[in-house]
Amino acid sequence: MAKLTEKIVLDKIVEFKGNVSACSRAFGVSRTTVHEFIRKHPDLQAAVRDARESLIDVAESVLYKAVLNGEAWAVCFTLKTQGRFRGYVQRQEHTGRDGEAIIYEHNGTAFTPLVERLDSLSDSFERAARRAGEGDLSGDGAGEPVDSGSHQKGHDPEAG
After folding, report:
1. Average of pLDDT values for 100-118?
2. What local confidence, expressed as pLDDT, does residue 115 receive?
C-alpha cells in the first residue's frame, strides 16, 4: 500500500481522468480512503472536477460529430436536451382508460386518486375557513356566530 501524498494522488487523478476507483486500485487502497484524502485537499477536489469536466467536453464533441453525421439517436437526444426551449420536449401523460382518472385498487378495493382526495380536502378547508371568517366555528354552517371576546353569554370573567 502506497503512502498517499497530494502529488501522487494528483498524478493518478490526471492519469485516470478523475476516476477515483481506478486511483484507489492503483494505490491498493479502498475508494473510501482515496475519497477521504481528496475531501481533505481542495486542490485535489478541483482536479477531480476538472478531469470530469474534460470528460464531458469529449462526450459533447463526440455527440456533436454524431449530429453532424445525421445519426438519428444523436439528433433526437440533442433536441430533447438542448432544444427544449424550442419545444422539443418529451412528455408522458398518466391517465386511465380513454383519458379517465387512474383508479388505484388494492385487494379489490378501489382508492380515489390522490389528487382528487387532495382537492376534496382543500374544498373542506376552504369551507371551514369561510365559516370561521363568518364567526361560525360549529362545523355545520348553521351555528350562531361566536363572539371571540370574554363577554360571551353565560361567561363570568370574574369566575375565571
Report:
1. 68
2. 58
d(CA 73, CA 66): 9
The residue to which cell 440533442 is assigned: 78
Residue 136 binned pLDDT confidence (cut-offs 50, 70, 90): low
**What spatial distance separates the first Cα and last Cα of the chain, rounded to whole Å?**
79
Same domain, 105 and 64: no
Structural domain of 66: 6-86
Per the DSSP assignment, residues forming a β-bridge with 71 are none
In this predicted structure, the answer to whether residue 76 has a pLDDT above a threshold of 80 is yes
For residue 128, name the pLDDT band (cuts at 50, 70, 90): confident
Specify which residues 109 forms β-bridges with.
106
In sequence order, the 6+-apart residues with CB closer than 8 A to the CB of 39 are 45
59 burial type by CB count under 10 A (0-12 exposed, 13-18 middle, 19+ buried): exposed
Task: For the chain, state the CA radius of gyration.
Answer: 32
Q: Are residues 133 and 74 in the same domain?
A: no
Does an H or E element contain 128, and which? helix 114-133
CA 21 to the chain's CA centroid: 27
Out of 67, 86, 105, a domain closes at: 86
pTM here?
A: 0.50
